[in-house]
Amino acid sequence: MEALEKLGKYSLLLYRSLRSLYEVDTYKKNLVNELLKIGYESVPIVLLTGVFTGAVMTIQTAYQLEIAFVPISVIGAITSESLLIELAAVITSLVLAGKVGARIATELGTMRVSEQIDALESMGFNSVSFLVLPRVLAGLIMFPMLYIFASISGIVGGIVAGAMSGAIPPAEFIQGAREFFYPWDVTFGILKAFVFGFVITSVSCFKGYYASGGAEGVGNSTTEATVLSCIYVLLADFVLAAVFL
Amino acid sequence: MIEIRNLKKSFGDLLVWEDVSFDIEDGETVAIIGRSGCGKSVLVKHLNALMYPDSGEVIIDGDNVFELEYVALRKMRQRFGVLFQGSALFDSLNTFENIAFPLRYFTNMSEERITNKVEEALDLVNLVGTGEKSPAELSGGMRRRVALARATILEPDFLIYDEPTSGLDPHTSSEINKLIISMAENLNITSIVVTHDIHSVLEIAEKVAFLENQGLCWYGTVEEMRRSDNEQLMDFITASEYQIRN
Q1: How confident is the model at residue A25 (pLDDT cuts 50, 70, 90)?
Q2: Rounded to whole angstroms, how far apart are CA atoms A212 and A92?
Q3: Taking the model in full, what pTM does it have?
Q4: By CA distance, what is B73's nearest residue in A?
């Protein structure tokens, strides 16, 4: 019963966000801020995650294929395919669930318990349009871009790690990656990032917007936002794979 | 004019109050008093529909606020200024930007005109020269005054003060009370003040609504309150005076 009530509140919050899409003047400044915070400020952690994921993936694949009778270019194919279709989107999103999700839930939660959201509403503001909509829109726009950064850095990391460890020369890595490259994989990865961006920002906004109970309540909301974002990202990942692959 | 009719509010199984009815005439200052936790702040949050009741009506100039469409409700809310208990200043903005915030979003004023208006507002609350300070750099009393300047910048018809003097020293409390009186007189604002400070009530209010026993226990003018033989009201006032003396 409680879960249904929360689902109803979450749906209503999204509906109110959608209905205020036309109020561009209300949210445009916050949208620019959020694009910078979610996108630009996340680039370093996304690049770092991508590089190390690609590097580890290359070394582990090389280790697993050591005794198999396959050309070593397969290492490049497996690494790049795995990154494009799964790892770049999922691992990046799980990292961002902590960075972006926690920030959103804490910001909105603090505004809620210190009556700043009430202050906005009491001035005649649409607080959802002002606070929730720009964050969700920024997530929808920036997550696919961050996915592309993560994919590129992952492949670069794989090439460098393959060359440094002697597992695979760069030319063979690139040849393998090109042979097994399907444009659909990138489209699917972008779709995943789009969905994950929506899940993380909307769940975190929901948890923060309805926070209650002072500092402890904000802490609980932040924890719940991060944990639920991770769980829903994994669930969404499974559903998308089952539907589209 | 604000007409409060048969309001009832509960949170789950916990009844806050029921059958609350009284009127607030234009231009008057009404104090809502009662013990901590009796639902004073909850009651005023119903006046501009920041909260919705289980039943009952709040009618402002003929419109039941709980039946207004969201767009109309937002228009109606712009007629209110609210001074929240914790001031509710936006952390990410400095003093100047906090006060200018409603002007930037709800008016077409030029930046020059906005700057003049904000400086006038800062002057009115005796905070000239603090525009660049962030809320964290201000004392509790200064934050209340900034919040008051922000609440009145759009020249509202109604001004709600939620515990305006709680947690402040007597000197600062007295300054805030004087500001409330000058706002009511100079801007001809209808003021609703939530407080449990009897000193403030005597200083600023014309009428008093006393909440007790999950309902409106007593309502009348300050003069009538002085002569009242309502036992619960007298208990509340006596306890406050005892607290003041000791």
Answers
A1: confident
A2: 30
A3: 0.87
A4: A124
